[in-house]
Specification:
Length: about 150
């Protein structure tokens, strides 16, 4: 397949600024912070950390699904993006990661402390690893394929 000439514009954008990369920061921070509060809970068994974990898991999962909608718009409506294997891999890893994050929230919502050890911590660590992989692939979309990049300025 011939390489795309020039940048690939986002359709889910405000004033030329793509929404997806703007929206993912808070969910990513919440889900990575979840690892830290899980470790704090494991070390000290303070119920505060378990309650904080419920909120971080919920904000991370819900915010991630909302941010993914903007990415989905570009994936299905922008033909050059649809042709990129990296875009599909990024999307599949992100859906898997958000499914884990949602599961992690469901583990905690009834009784915040009951399943943090071991399942909550394990799922948090796996989610963090998948965030790293999705972030790497997202970076390749921006830096190698210029998805959502405005080179006119």
């Amino acid at each position: 397949m011939p390489r795309q000439e020039g940048p690939i514009q986002s359709r889910a954008a405000i004033a030329g600024h793509p929404l997806h990369p703007m929206m993912i920061h808070f969910p990513v921070a919440a889900l990575l912070g979840l690892v830290a509060v899980d470790v704090a809970y494991v070390l000290g068994r303070d119920p505060f950390w378990a309650r904080a974990g419920v909120w971080l898991a919920g904000v991370g999962a819900a915010g991630g699904w909302i941010a993914s909608l903007a990415g989905l718009v570009d994936l299905v409506t922008v033909a050059p993006v649809r042709r990129l294997v990296t875009a599909w891999c990024h999307a599949i890893i992100a859906v898997m990661m958000l499914s884990l994050a949602s599961f992690n929230w469901l583990l905690r919502v009834g009784d915040a402390q009951a399943l943090v050890v071991p399942w909550g911590l394990y799922v948090s660590l796996l989610t963090a690893a998948m965030i790293a992989l999705a972030a790497y692939l997202g970076g390749r979309l921006v830096y190698e394929h210029a998805v959502g990049v405005d080179l006119s300025g």
